[in-house]
């Protein structure tokens, strides 16, 4: 074979193999069937989302082992920041097994709009505050840092140069 024919043959075979990609028929609810490549179908198919559970009647969730504030909030369709605020949590990453978390805000102050004929005063209710479960005392451990040293030994053969795409570090 000539020097030109061999690379052209290899290129032709590679193109033929690339054209043999897998395709499948995808039906999306209410839309006609269409052929989509497997990679595109995997990338574009949205994951089904479970509907959030209803908040319990008493509006309280008791923390079980392995639960996180984010997971509990997600389960009920709430923002974890709101749940942390409603429960006066200083650190949203720290909850304890058995702790009772409020899943609704404390009762808000109700004010009726004044009427021009007679002033109306709405009763003001004090927000109900609950004391969070006592946190167990955690000992503070201070570890000493290892002494600093160069990551390697030997001579430096190149340096970082800003703006030079060939000398940008690792």
Please tell me about this protein's structure.
With 170 residues, this protein is of the alpha+beta class. Helix content is 21%, strand content 8%. The protein has four helices and four strands. The chain has helices at 5-18, 38-44, 69-75, 80-86; strands at 23-26, 34-37, 60-62, 100-102. Strand 1 (23-26) and strand 2 form a beta hairpin. 4% of the residues are buried. The model is unreliable at 108-115 (pLDDT under 50).
- Straight-line distance between termini: 44 Å
Mean pLDDT, to the nearest integer, reads 74
**By helix and strand content, what is the structural category?**
alpha+beta
Q: Write down the Rg.
A: 32 Å
How many H/I helical runs?
4
Strand proportion, as a percent range, falls in 5-15%
Amount of helix: 10-25%
Strand arrangement, major sheet? 1-2
Q: Which parts are unreliable, with pLDDT below 50 for 5 consecutive residues or more? A: 108-115
Most strands sheet: 2 strands, antiparallel
What's the total count of β strands?
A: 4
The general outline is flat
Report the order of strands and helices: HEEHEHHE
Summarize the topology.
Blueprint: H1 5-18, E1 23-26, E2 34-37, H2 38-44, E3 60-62, H3 69-75, H4 80-86, E4 100-102
Antiparallel strand pairs: 1-2, 3-4
Q: What can be said about this structure in brief?
A:
This protein has 170 residues and is an alpha+beta fold. 21% of the residues lie in helices and 8% in strands.
What key phrases describe this protein's structure?
about 170 residues; about 20% helix; alpha+beta; about 10% strand
């Amino acid at each position: 074979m000539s020097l030109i024919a061999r690379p052209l043959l290899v290129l032709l075979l590679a193109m033929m193999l690339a054209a043999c990609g897998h395709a499948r028929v995808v039906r999306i609810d209410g839309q006609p069937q269409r052929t989509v490549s497997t990679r595109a179908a995997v990338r574009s198919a949205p994951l089904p989302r479970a509907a959030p559970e209803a908040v319990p009647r008493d509006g309280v969730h008791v923390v079980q082992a392995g639960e996180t504030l984010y997971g509990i909030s997600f389960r009920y369709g709430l923002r974890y920041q709101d749940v942390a605020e409603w429960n006066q949590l200083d650190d949203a990453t720290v909850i304890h097994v058995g702790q009772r978390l409020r899943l609704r805000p404390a009762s808000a102050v109700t004010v009726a709009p004044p009427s021009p004929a007679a002033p109306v005063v709405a009763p003001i209710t004090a927000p109900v505050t609950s004391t969070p479960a006592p946190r167990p005392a955690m000992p503070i451990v201070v570890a000493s840092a290892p002494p600093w040293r160069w990551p390697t030994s030997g001579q430096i053969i190149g340096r970082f140069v800003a703006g030079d795409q060939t000398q940008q570090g690792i």
